[in-house]
Predict the structure of LysR family transcriptional regulator.
Amino acid sequence: MDAPETRELAYFVAVAEELHFGRAAERLGMAQPPLSRAIQRLERRMGVALLERTSRAVSLTPAGAVFLAESRKALDAVAAAVRRAQRSGRESPRLLVVMKPEGDAGLLGRILPAYRLDPDAVEVEVVVCGIGEQSAMLRDGRADLAFLHGPWDDVSGFDVEPLLTEDQVAVLPRGHRLADRAALVLSDLDGEQLPRWPGVDVAGASGPLVRDASQLMQLIALSQVVAVLPETMRRNARADVVCVPVLDAPSSSILVAWPERTRSRAVAAFVRACTEVAHGGRAVENAGR
Amino acid sequence: MDAPETRELAYFVAVAEELHFGRAAERLGMAQPPLSRAIQRLERRMGVALLERTSRAVSLTPAGAVFLAESRKALDAVAAAVRRAQRSGRESPRLLVVMKPEGDAGLLGRILPAYRLDPDAVEVEVVVCGIGEQSAMLRDGRADLAFLHGPWDDVSGFDVEPLLTEDQVAVLPRGHRLADRAALVLSDLDGEQLPRWPGVDVAGASGPLVRDASQLMQLIALSQVVAVLPETMRRNARADVVCVPVLDAPSSSILVAWPERTRSRAVAAFVRACTEVAHGGRAVENAGR
DNA sequence: CCCGATCGATACCCTGGCGGTATGGACGCA
DNA sequence: TGCGTCCATACCGCCAGGGTATCGATCGGG
């Protein structure tokens, strides 16, 4: 079959997300009937039913679920194509690096000067975005590089270079039953409320949704939740919380990530600077491929 | 800006590849003027010049080169979205595994029975394609899994699991000046003709283009080329060629690859079967994510 | 030096795809 | 059974996008 137009993919994604033709049409700024027809056309040409509709409800078929995920990827790729071309075409080249607050564990302050020494260096703009937004920004071409946090962030579609791994600590309110322990294991935390982060779906975790570290610290201080965080988060710790090492928590890592198959010398140089700083000056030859 | 339609991306790719509006239009089955206008519109909306045209020649701007690469990725993603949805929607589920001739080093014969024991197993179809075609088939959704050959195949965009690594041997015609050596190093081969493979651009290598192993063996026997190949290729060796270990050649590896973020249980089970067979029965818990 | 060939851009026309409005029909609920 | 909801169908009108004819620039050959 002939490939669907990006418009059709966007229509389908809207309907699949809303599971409601009326609302989807509204979101797309159009009327409902043409939207219904567009989806019908799409299904007919693909030869697959994507949606199950009764006059009361719309649901995804298995093929529809696959197509939703794939369509999102495809739309990201289209958006990325435009953004990357625009960025490489316009004005002076610059690198856009995106991170979440505290997402660099203090490395960036040493990376930037190291990077500027590289002959391939260009101007760097650092954007601090909301938690979970970085990978989307990298995926759709708004950013050139991102500091991600393994194992939470989804690194698929990116090349990554690990910068440092750190153990995790439990952050507890002062006076918590475990606050005086020298160390603990994950099972000690059974039954505690753990926070949920936007963009991260952990099965079971149903504690309060937190948006940033200070919000989280506030909730911890109020004994609403406890959290298990990378060690460097200690620097955000307020006076009224305590940190206790968690011996069996998976170690967390900070990665620098960039789009796969990137050929940019500026990106390669930045990655080089990252690994040099992170690994104590040992040159890593094949960084940046 | 509003996203370009896939049709526009296809137009641009055609022009960028042909570097000639007339030929590109012909390839697309349309007249030249609407194609010129479509590209102009695209450039105007993107706000970037993609092509440099004089009335005699067309060339890519740097932004155009970036956009060409990104557009190909995006078109692949769109095609993959359709194919994967179709496959998961139609008929009985089946897994399509793609490999090049001899690309499994004999593993597949043991993997398939192991896979069938898995409760998540579905029917498997194995397609043997031309060299260098596998990653394209995996990328655009025609295949579910592929056996790739590191470090030659481009694995970006895929999740991979290495199955086995092997040392490389030089394949020489009987009577070659190095044929009697017990082992050699790469620099011993300086000045020899090395074959080129379709889809693999190695800087410098400018020997004859070979399409498959038997063709290559033929050329070796005729003293047209020598080749450095993974050890398992010995089994293709004809009587009139000899194999000599190359001590410092990078070791080659066979990987099983599948599209990132795949959630299919059937794919996960297949990968599980692969790792079990390859690693001698040691279960690998997180295979298939 | 001019003429013809080449090739992309422009001018103009026309069709069909796509979006809009009005309405139908199925289903759930009170 | 009447009403509200929600997707599908019918029908209409516009313009985006494709076609043809032609222009203008540039290069090469006689």
Residues 20-22, 32-33, 36-37, 40, 53-58 of chain B lie near DNA strand C (CB under 10 Å from a C1').
